[in-house]
């Protein structure tokens, strides 16, 4: 439906296909465009009749339209000038330029002439909803479903009454890749011009650019294009980078070229061969001209222009001045830094400060060459836009010649090497191949493959590529498989710039990294979560109760771009059935008996801009599942008792300990909802299957002890202030710490740890945490090591009785005086305490070993049974039994 539809499908063929669809419900005749066939089939399935009036297509009231305009004010504001421009260009062809929101609600229209009157008759005007479900195949509605630019000509419209229209529409995506709305040019089909599709695509891109620039106004923004002239056109790539050097956003074009995905999971250096401090230095220059980045090997090139927020410039240049004056004070070499350097010139030293290089250029410090050399970047390209050179600026300084004739970063003018650089060029950390930055490419395209003839062609190609890899369901732009015509390296050809081999763990955000305690399954799970961070992919966390699903969801929230937004957790199992609906979706005042007069926004709306964690979603009643599905699809919430639907933007994370898949098969959970929430399903392993119990115990203990001792320190301080005796209980914790608890070290006796490692922990981490809380509370003031007797009594009883449930659920209990389920014979369990109460049916040899070990410990304790039992982490009676 993109290009084929411009050469409209022959009317006879359309008629035949329509007849077939109506008679058989199928389209075996196959229209030449698969997208058109799909859309017709959808229209048919929606129960629309191609002839006659449209039955009950919704239309917004003027109040609803006003509200929608308010909600979409950013989109409308950025689209308006673009629409005016489009209108000026298409005026002669008697058409209309239309903007719709993401639901197909027409927000604004520009047009004049006779066509507008005709358009009004088919409700092509603000307030009407051109969703495919109501109006059949049409450019706006179909572009929304197909998520790509679409042209629908004359009889290709499913409803015959729209057959006089020719419409071209392109989705407008926000910087996260979500479709915000659609830009459309509609006109009389007889006047249709074949370039309209390219025009509307470019216009939509232009709106996206404006949105991108606004949303990322506080970030460093990079414009990219294989041709210098391509910068500032709708075909350029855009990247946004945080001050720490993380990619935080990118448009489809940039992501396609760089093979990157816009998430904080990638540092800029992973995709562009420029060390971050040096790029920052260059970007902070007042008049930084575009530069050409070229990859070694295949000579593909990208032109880069950077803009930074003014505050960054102030910060970096200010820091630079300070650093310079400090270095001057120390009498250290500062190369040729000029004391009166301008801000832009001063910024040039950032690179060498950051990289530790000491550059000596022999040039005037204010020359461009100076900036580049001092920043560690090679000098500006000699043929790289003469106009970029300031009048009178000196020639670029000499730099280390590249093996292939290019110039290198990573080495200073005297050949001093910069950390991270090697003789062959800069090695991007973890990247497979060294890459060179060639600031000297004569035109940025000399070695580069042929470039697109026009930005329009480029735009068309990118759109076609998007059609190849459409990003479904509001996902971030997927990697584009660039058309060869663009001459731009596809994601594949840039692959060496990525860091597939690197271990990303070092770059995990702290909240995720903190959960990586050494268990390989958990590690894999965290890796997968890390990959989908900041992507609108719904997560489904499954696993037994207490394994830490909520903890994971919270870590995902805290690690992502939404961390400043709300995190709202709802336990669907804990809410009375009658209240879930009101709790989730909100209600209008007095909507039901007992409802408050003011009404309530509901948890979904509370989570707007943040994360909604729906725990135990398997416990949600079926009717509510249907409602939730609708909300997830429409991204709008309708409060109970009526009122306008409100848009919500939430990252959804669902969790359940129930087997949802099986529930779907049994009809207890909606299949459509299951697939909707199942963007990425991960199973959190039970504690008994984890190998990092010791590290987890330490983590939990730190968490348990620190606040306790802090609270006690406070209580003590308070008590002292009131001249009353300090509370006795557990004052040892802060006395151990001596500093309010921060340094308290409580650990678990090794023998007890062995026992714990063999226990099945049916309540998982929750049970472990509770056990440790009790144990810490039971510690005497002088004790810092947890023994079995500190544990809750039920565990003690279970373990000392040898009734510990093993990971393999085998019980052994033939220690004297106990009863067992397996009746395994032998003496004791495995070594140490585990031998006494180890869960897996121990062999006689193991029991013998445990007994021997207990004897040895007793000898070491010079016969002191209490001490030996303490060391072994068991009670005295148990030790007696064991030794018998
Ligand atoms: N990795 C972890 N580090 C520290 N504490 C953890 C970890 N995982 C779980 N916990 C603790 O275990 C308890 C249970 O965790 P959480 O509520 O996340 O489990 P869950 O799987 O969501 O349980 P349920 O299915 O019953 O809701 C919490 O107190 C939590 O703090």
UniProtKB/TrEMBL annotation:
- Region called Disordered, residue ranges: 327-406, 437-457, 475-506, 810-843
UniProt lists compositionally biased (Low complexity) regions at 447-457, 815-843
- Per UniProt, residues of the Sigma-54 factor interaction domain are 515-777
Instruction: Show the Pfam families listed in the entry.
Output: AAA_lid_14, GAF, HTH_8, Sigma54_activat
Q: Which domain of life is it from?
A: Bacteria
Keywords recorded for this protein, A-Z = ATP-binding, DNA-binding, Nucleotide-binding, Transcription, Transcription regulation
Cited PANTHER family: TRANSCRIPTIONAL REGULATORY PROTEIN
Report what the protein is called: Transcriptional regulator of acetoin/glycerol metabolism
